[in-house]
Structures are given as C-alpha cells and as structure tokens.
Amino acid sequence: MNFSSDNAAGVSPEILAALAAANVGAEPSYGADPITQRVAARFAELFEHEVAVFPVATGTAANALGLAAVTPPWGVVFCHPDSHVEVDECGAPEFYTGGAKLTLVPGADGKLAASDLAALLPGGKGVVHHAQPASVSITQATECGTVYRPEELAAVAEVAHAHGLALHMDGARFANALVTLGCRPADVTWRAGVDVLSFGATKNGAMAAEAILFFDPAKAADLGFRRKRAGHLFSKMRFLSAQLDAYLADGLWLRNARHANAMAARLAEGLGNLPGFRLRYPVEANELFVEMPDRVIRALLGDGFRFYRWIGETAECIRLVTSFATLADDVDRFTAAARRYALVVDA
Questions:
Q1: What secondary structure letter does DSSP report for 38?
Q2: What is the pLDDT of residue 347?
C-alpha cells in the first residue's frame, strides 16, 4: 500500500523477460548492438520523425545532458519553480552545462505559461554583462500532476523560438500525459515545437532506462561525447536498450500509464468529496495532492499506508502517486480508511 512514488514500484514482467533474453550470447558493445539499433528505429516510427536517440540510466542524466547540448555555460535555462531540474537534481543541470543559470518562471498548476516567459525576454540577450537566454525546460506531466495541452506547448515554443531559445521537455511521465491527452506523440513534441525530449521509462515499468531524443539531430552533434564524459555510455548498452525496446513494444508503455492514471482517478474520486479534504490541483496523470486534517494523515500513516507530506513533516497536504503496479484493492482500502478517519475527525 505504497503511494509514495511510482519509483517504488517494481519492473514490468515484460521488461524483465527482455533483459533475460538480452543476456543470451554476446553482442557488440557501446550501442553497436542490434537491440539499440532497433530502439532507435522504434522511436523514429513512434514520433513520425527523424530522431537522434541516446539511452541513459536516469532522468537526471537525461535532463542535464539534454539541456547541456542546447545551453552554453553562460546561458539561462527558464523553468518552473517546481520543476525537477530546479528542485531535485542537486545542481546537475548547472554542472553539466558548465555553469548555466536556472531562471524561474512561476505559473499555476505547475505550468510555465507563454505570456510569463515572454515577459522575461529578450532579457539582456547580447549584453556581455548578462547571462544569455538559451533554453526553456518544461515538464510533461508536470510535478503537480497536470498536463500541458498541445496549444499550450506550441505557445511556449513560439515565444522561445522567436528569441532563439531551444525548448526542452522533461518527459519522466510523458506516457501518463499522453494517455490523458489521447493524441499522437508527435503532437506534443516536435509538432508543438519541442527540440529535445527526456523520454522517461523508469517511473512507468522499466528498471532504469531513459532516453534523450533530439528531433533535429544536428543539435545532438556533441551529445555522444557529453554522455561518455558523464559516465552514461554503457559498455553493455543492450541491457539499457532492451528495457526501452520492451517498453515500446506492443504498447506496453501506454498500457502501464493508462492503468496508473486510472488508479489516480479512482483515488481522486474516493477522496475529493470527503469533509476537510481538498484536491490542490487537477488530477490529470498519476499524481494527486490532497489537503486533509493532520489527524487523518497521522492515522493513515499509522495504518501502514506510505506517502509523503507535501512539503514538511507537519504539512497538511499529502502527495499520492500511483503506478502500473498499483492495485485497485489498495486504492479502495486507502479511500475507505480516509473516509473512516475523516468522519471521526468531523464529528
């Protein structure tokens, strides 16, 4: 009954089977194996576009290296205050870019708005005393569990590109966003103006596998060297690629995300109308943030449910995250317990 993170879930059986299959025999190293080549072809077909593909092991590596490819050391990366690159990557984007500056663009529901970005540009571009605007990083789905629509992405991209900035997308939960939107992957990436995508799989059933995708391969000219220098050019790359291969095969990535989203919606339905409870953001992917009385939170933790207070040990808002492995019975147990404690508190 762990709702602390989708990272708490295990590995999809299909991906474990793919790893076992990849373990048979010998294959060329450093990405010259047929599985890695097949993954590149799968991505090109999936996104209906030529794409340069670089598998890595973590989302932090994908974000930091992807941004480094489009942001010089004297550059500025515009991002939301809640973004993973700002809050949860221990300075990795600044490190791998060689010192670029993160500039925060606040916005409702975890989203960076085109109008707010436009107000900060051109922002001293060309002035030697100033860090130079270089890129924008957005998160899909956001850290608040909300989703950018294609028109929102296109508006941000239009502003960014008008000022010569690249648009990066942190897609750690890209699959969850896509099943909510019901559109094609291309519609919320390159067709909407995204230049670089950190394509996530770990949170949605992989063991440890992400990919950096460039929709203009010319922008990836030095990424191979950056990846090697960062320690993410795996010698036995086939084991990284086997996870992505199985993830994309037969729609596994979308099935997993669809289930996770459905479990989040089930939680939201069960909790949303309880006395003293409030959903802080729209529930559009597999995360929900619920404000509730402290006594209820303590009682739920005492029952063995696992989740985080958001943010701080005494916060009266909790984050619940569902995954491909979340059981409907566990969701129902949680909502039943919350209802029981809410009614006692309210009495």
A1: H
A2: 42
